[in-house]
Amino acid sequence: MTRSAILGLGHYVPSKVVTNDDLAKMFDTSDEWIQQRTGIKERRYIEESGIGPSDLAVPAVKMACENAGIEVSDVDAIIFATLSPDFTFPGSGCFLGDKLGLAGVPALDIRNQCSGFLYGLQIADAWVRCGMYERVALVGGEVHSTGLDFTDEGRDVAVLFGDGAACAIVGPAENDDQGVLDVEVHADGSGAKELWIEAPASAYMPRITHEMIDNRSVWPAMNGKQVFRWATTKMPEVARAVLERNETTVADIDLLVPHQANRRINEFVAQKLELPPEKVVHNIQRYGNTTAASIPLALSEAIQQERAKKGDLILMAAFGSGFTWGASLVRL
Ligand code: UT7
Prior knowledge:
By secondary structure, the chain is of the alpha/beta class.
């Protein structure tokens, strides 16, 4: 069976920079609190209404195709991981395919939040290995800024998230040294309501009411401490499982590219894995948490900055809403 590989990466963030001080003008928070608890200094927001995750994904896919040495028209399948789709339906993948001129190319949206890229990578890897598709555009894209509660009541969540998109082109490995070596993903829905948006909901009749708006069910709600505890347990656990199954030690890893939810979580994970700080990628200080986009965005930047290069062994790990979590080992 042909092994799959990440053939090229690309990313795009909107131009509007929103600093912690900008947020402190809207609600009761401070640059000091945000930096100390999360490591975030600024994040990007879309410039105006009408820009969805599929719009952010267009330049990300084009950059990924260029880096993979293929034309956009070579893409034969799209996987779009997002928790903030352009519209409830159809999926963002359909909008993206249209914007890229890929009529007829299948487009699968997946809803696995911060672990979305790893879930998508497992699907893309299986498709390529069985010969179904050869040029999969695996996209993570989010527009969070239109769905945050910029008041004192929503401040715990509002400071964390930012907008952005990134793409990996997944196709057959070009040589034996390269490839997606393993992907392991998990979910435990007992934690679903620890990080979620309750409304609008198909489970309610009607799906949305004035009362839901008044009681704040329309905004993301998070039990931060619980998420923190789970993330710092599950990310090292699944990363270790993947390393052991592949008879790889921490010393073999060139770079850990973790989901960017909180710099403290990632420092904790690195410490538990006994990985030195210089082997860990952090870009949360500039982008906040971009959810499904965060891992490919961090890896794409690491390659651009020549921190990661062909032949490097990359460990990725994520934890997020669902709860969902996972890890992957990739030789670039
Ligand atoms: O992708 C996965 C998604 N999310 C995560 O991974 C998040 C995981 N959790 C976390 O990162 C942390 O729990 C947070 C950064 C969200 C919060 O840090 P914390 O140390 O758990 O703070 P806390 O929620 O216990 O709040 C401490 C205090 C509270 O005040 P009191 O009760 O001590 O007076 C909060 O009201 O900080 C207050 N607070 C804020 N203060 C200023 C909460 N949010 C803010 C804020 N600015 N934005």
